[in-house]
Design goal:
Blueprint (H helix, E strand, L loop, with lengths): L2 E2 L4 H10 L4 E4 L13 E4 L6 E5 L4 E5 L4 H9 L3 E2 L8 H4 L7 H6 L7 H4 L6 E8 L4 E5 L11 H5 L7 E9 L1 E2 L3 E8 L3 H12 L5 E7 L8 E8 L1 H14 L7 E3 L2 H12 L10 E6 L5 H6 L5 E5 L4 E6 L7 H9 L4 E6 L11 H14 L15
Parallel strand pairs: 1-3, 2-3
Antiparallel strand pairs: 4-5, 5-9, 6-10, 7-8, 7-9, 11-13, 11-14, 12-13, 12-16, 15-17, 15-18, 16-17
Length: 381
């Protein structure tokens, strides 16, 4: 199959301008989420490299095809990080290659720390991209500011390459924490775990991770609450939070850096489901509704993140549960479901008529030829 890997923004713009057939836009190719998309591969992997990094200003300008690992290495050398903690989908989806920073932004990938610092799009200061007519468009800048006119920065985050091909990104970065502590409660039911997580998130103790696994490493339920900061502060807040959550039993505090890092990567990358058989769904719901939604789907296994606001759902084939049933369980409560691994025509949550019309209008504006990932998000191929 034909593949295009432009080395410059101008070369990319020329390829798009001359295109008469659709493209499959991708970065490292590690997140093949969405409906089937035909066309030549248009890869941003040739648009790689850090353009500007100002640690003092907490600002990074980077080309879209730059590997995430390269970005993280440069930031780590200065004691900084991508605070939104992007997930690595390779283990869950069985893919290879290197995730790119453009792919992270295109899918708005955000990890456990989102509950405190916000999503990937909240750290995006500016973008450059090539639209479906081959025009090079720039929006935003290198500092946080109020937006006037169209906020294309936020629009491009989560558009999955259907509106334009990202070429350059400006990101806000944050300092790495000096110490991390994870409170671990064992044996809680889903209902009690979500209650405990909600109380922790509502406390003044600056929780940066709140997750519950129905089956931890040893097969038993484990509830995880993360605290970050200076060592003395973490210890003080952990003790105070344990007292506040005493009704849920005693908790152990894990402070070993390697173990806490591995524990949250276990949650972030949905490691329990990586080798398990079955479809994997990603549900966004109100935390208080989460246990009831899972209980209405017998035979599934759940991993709760974001205090219950995010449910990773493993649906073994023998359950017979369909995407229609999953979305029906959500219908009365609100929320939405995305199929991350498995076979279904409706990968993304179907849009209501008003939002669908708005989405179609945006696509017509930015990609009138319909050449970027047609069919990936359910739009007409």
């Amino acid at each position: 199959m034909t593949a295009f890997t432009p080395k410059t923004e101008a070369e990319l713009a020329q390829i798009v301008t001359e295109a008469e057939a659709p493209f499959r836009v991708q970065g490292g190719g590690t997140r093949p989420i969405g409906g089937p998309t035909n066309g030549a591969i248009l890869s941003t992997s040739g648009l790689s490299g850090i353009e500007l990094y100002e640690p003092g200003a907490l600002t990074l300008v980077v080309r879209a095809g730059t590997p995430v690992a390269e970005v993280e290495k440069v930031l780590d050398a200065e004691g900084q990080r991508l605070a939104f903690e992007p997930m690595d989908h390779r283990g869950l989806l069985g893919t290879e290659g290197e995730p790119t920073i453009g792919g992270v932004v295109a899918a708005n990938i955000s990890g456990p720390r989102r509950i405190q610092v916000g999503a990937c799009r909240d750290h995006l200061l500016g973008v450059r991209f090539v639209d479906g007519q081959g025009r090079i468009i720039k929006n935003g800048g290198r500092v946080m500011k109020n937006v006037t006119g169209y906020d294309l920065v936020k629009l491009m985050a989560g558009s999955y390459g259907t509106l334009g091909v990202l070429t350059e990104l400006s990101l806000k970065v944050l300092p790495t924490s000096h110490a991390t502590g994870t409170l671990l409660f064992e044996g809680l039911s889903d209902e009690d775990a979500v209650k405990a997580l909600s109380m922790a998130l509502g406390s003044p103790y600056e929780v940066t991770g709140a997750a519950h696994l129905q089956r931890g490493v040893d097969g038993a339920p484990v509830t995880m609450i993360r605290l970050e900061g200076f060592e003395n502060s973490v210890a003080y807040r952990a003790e105070a939070l344990q007292k506040q959550l005493a009704e849920f039993g005693s908790a152990t505090l894990e402070t070993d850096p390697a173990r806490t890092k591995a524990g949250w990567e276990y949650v972030r990358d949905v490691v329990p489901f990586q080798t398990a058989q079955g479809d994997v769904w990603r549900l966004s719901v109100k935390p208080g509704d989460a246990p009831g939604i899972v209980a209405a789907l017998p035979g599934v296994q759940a991993l709760y993140d974001w205090g219950g606001g995010l449910i990773w759902l493993l649906v073994p084939e023998e359950t017979g549960i369909t995407g229609t049933q999953i979305r029906a369980a959500l219908a009365a409560k609100g929320g939405h479901a995305t199929l991350v691994r498995g076979q279904s025509r409706e990968v993304f949550q179907p849009l209501n008529s008003a939002v669908a019309a708005l989405s179609a209008g945006l696509r017509q504006k930015f990609d009138p030829k319909g050449i970027f990932n047609p069919g990936l998000m359910g739009q007409a191929a």
